[in-house]
Amino acid sequence: MQIRKTDIDSINLSDFSFNNSVFSSFEWIKKFDNHVFYLIYEKDNSVIGGFVIQKSSIVGYNIIKNLPYTPTISLFFNNKSKNYSNANSNTKHLMDCIADFFDSSKNLIVKFALPFGFNDLQPFIWRKYKVIPNYTYRLNLNNSIENLVGNMSPQRRNELKKGDKDGIVVRRNFDNELVLSVINKTFDRKELNVSTNILRRILFDFANESNSYSFVAFKNEQPIATTFCIYDNSVVYYLLGGYDNFNKHQSGGAMCVWNSVLHAKEIGKAVFDFEGSMLKPVERYFRDFGGELSTYYTVNKAKLPIELLLKFIKREYF
């Protein structure tokens, strides 16, 4: 296998039917600065995969990470073998090639995640990367609505009932300025320094009816909570959400999430992914919707002096 940097304007990703992730679509990748797209070639020069990273530089060394608002490096891979042993060997070789590729570059910090389903991280462990399990919750939308409701915690079910009783109205939203205003209130409340420019690129340059949707909850016709989701052929990802702390109702957020799940099922998607549940309060909230806890992995490595420093400020990763 060989990994080559590729100008995404020079190829047509739709030629690769095995690439079906919204996070590795041109429409998504091109919304972010410093993106670098790589294709993976077999010996016969056929394309068998690819991935995307964000790369910046400091004093001649690279910092490698996922694109913003992107849970992984969006690795896609066409493992052609039908034999279980050979398929495992192909995946092992793929991971070994990716690890070798990053080791051969002048990288100061490498920190990225691999998509759900890529579980063989031994080649990274053998090369002294720190491999960290991360978690998300995923709802199987092939279940009936009755089963989805039944799998929720009593607290979430009660919130939905209370919202209906108290006259909270949830509507499919087509005004992303409204979504942005509610989300910004959440970021302000949490004192998070978030690039409004990147959010606007996602909400206004990327989003359209073929790849995303949002819901807004209203109390007395005032917006109180929102969810914004993006999707590909089979999976809907909960990307953004928030609520107005000064005009809120305990059911607003849950009702937006539930309507987002119902819409995902309505448009024929197989999975609703809460797209990361690593913060303790967030994990508890998402867990209550009854999804299956699913593991994906982050690989991390830094130059030794930097790694020692990062152990004090990012011990969970280094």
Describe the model.
This protein has 318 residues and is α+β, with helices and mostly antiparallel strands. Helix content is 33%, strand content 30%. It has helices at 26-29, 84-103, 122-126, 145-151, 154-165, 176-189, 196-206, 252-266, 280-287, 304-313, and strands at residues 2-6, 35-41, 47-58, 61-65, 76-77, 107-114, 130-140, 169-173, 212-219, 222-231, 235-243, 271-273, 292-302. Strand 2 and strand 3 (47-58) form a beta hairpin. The model has no long low-confidence stretch (mean pLDDT 89).
Q: Gyration radius, to the nearest Å?
A: 21 Å
Poorly predicted ranges: none
Q: What is the percentage of strand-forming residues?
A: 25-35%
Mean pLDDT: 89
User: Could you give the order of the helices and strands?
Assistant: EHEEEEHEHEHHEHHEEEHEHEH
Number of strands: 13
CATH topology of the largest domain: Aminopeptidase
Level-1 CATH class name of the largest domain: Alpha Beta
Shape, per Cα inertia axes: globular
Oligomer: single chain
* Number of structural domains: 2
How many alpha or pi helices? 10
Helix content: 25-40%
CATH superfamily of the largest domain, please?
A: Gcn5-related N-acetyltransferase (GNAT)
Q: Termini, distance in Å?
A: 29 Å
Q: Please state the second-level CATH architecture of the largest domain.
A: 3-Layer(aba) Sandwich
